[in-house]
Amino acid sequence: MAASEGPLKGVKVLDLSRILAGPTSTQLLGDLGATVIKIENPATGGDDTRQWGPPYVEDADGNRSDLSAYFMSSNRNKKSVALDIATPEGQAEIRRLASHADILIENFKPGGLAKYGLDYATLSQEFPDLVYCSISGYGQTGPNASKPGYDLMAQGYGGIMSLTGDPQGAPMKVGVGIADVMCGMYATVGILAALRHRDLTGEGQQIDLALVDAQIAWLINEGVNYLTSGNVPQRRGNGHPNIVPYDVYETSDGHVILAVGNDSQFQRFCGFIGHPELAEDARFATNPARLEHRDALNAILRPAVQTLDTRAVIDGLEALKVPVGPVQTLDQVFDTDQVAARQMQIDLQAAPGPVQLIGNPLHLSRTPVTYRSAPPVCGADTQAVLSAENPFDD
Predict the structure, then answer these.
(1) Residue 139 has pLDDT above 60, yes or no
(2) Which one, of 177, 241, 183, 173, lies nearest residue 217 by Cα?
(3) Is there a single domain that holds both residue 298 and residue 212?
(4) CATH number at residue 68
């Protein structure tokens, strides 16, 4: 297929978002073929994350660019336009761009764009078919609507930090900005649903999405565990709230992950570690019993696994079809044949030089994702976009 094609070819996205949640969504739309114009404030040097480094991409002479690794993680397949929306000229350009766009996405504080006449209530009067996605910390309504939203705050307020970390330690955030990333994923789903509605009816709409709402939504089983039982879940480190053994176990030379999901797997596992009697013990024979006696079981399992080396555990349990896996560092991850086979590392040519990025995990059999352009330097496309009769022309 031609490089410019994709399932969303012809869809036009005006991106007024920054940091991670909105850019994650618009990068995904861009990977699927949409044309994305990213608006950046020239007075601040563009998207905040351009300054969130090191590391940065350097040119052949060793000069630092504004392409930080953080920025590049969510900004490929986009055109960058440097535009100050606080000026009448900037506002006029946004309205012109919106007149051509199918989708507008923004993450200003609720009401923050109203003073510029770029809020949904204003733009929808002129462009009733516009799909307008608003991302904020707490949403457009509610007592916390005016508060700023950051990933760490969302993880704290939404409860995931209370479930993460060592049982005896402090609450712990997830190692990446997962509240932002998942909010971006929900935004993409909402945008595509609203686009489908627009295509059927001609009617646009606003998507009101909050970081905290999204984070609460992906509490998943632990959230419903609480709602069902009334018991507040506690941190269990790497342990699973509903399955035992499902945890990280120390070996003689490292660590392995064991994910024993049913009783027959548990029987085979017990035989492998030399304790077949555990599968017959009433305390451990079924998963509900193992949950009740988690500590007593782990007091036996951990010393047994610790006598074995990592490779022996993985090879032995894989042969027995008991779920097991390694705990890899990122150098090990990106050196695997699996990453190469699935194209989860990609190489692109940015303005300062070559860059390596993480690939898109979607593998569509008829309309695959495309990587048409590397993350842009700030304002790289300003003149071309603002001087074009149709600014979304590729």
Answers:
(1) yes
(2) 183
(3) no
(4) 3.40.50.10540
- Residues 255 and 248 sit within 8 Å (Cβ to Cβ): yes
Report pLDDT digits (tens) over 221-252.
999 999 999 999 999 999 999 999 999 999 99
Q: Which of 31, 180, 247, 381 is catalytic?
A: 180
Boundary residue ending a domain (303, 326, 349): 326
For residue 80, the number of C-alpha atoms closer than 13 Å in the C-beta half-sphere is 26
Please provide the DSSP assignment of 300-369 as one string.
HHHHHHHTS-HHHHHHHHHHTT--EEE---HHHHTTSHHHHHTT-EEEEE-SSSEEEEEPP----SSS--
Give the CATH number for residue 266: 3.30.1540.10
pLDDT for residue 101 is more than 90: yes
pTM, two decimal places: 0.93
* Tokens matching residue 339: 């990453």
Q: How many separate domains does the chain show? A: 2
Task: Establish if 243 belongs to a structural domain.
Answer: no
Query: Cα(143)–Cα(140) distance, rounded to whole angstroms?
Result: 10
For residue 345, what are the domain limits? 12-218+337-386
Catalytic status, residue 180: yes
Q: What angle do CA 290, 293, 299 make, to 5 degrees?
A: 100
Q: What is the tens place of the pLDDT at every residue in 25-78?
A: 999 999 999 999 999 999 999 999 999 999 999 999 999 999 999 999 999 999
- Where among 278, 297, 326 does a domain terminate? 326
Is 3 among the domain residues? no
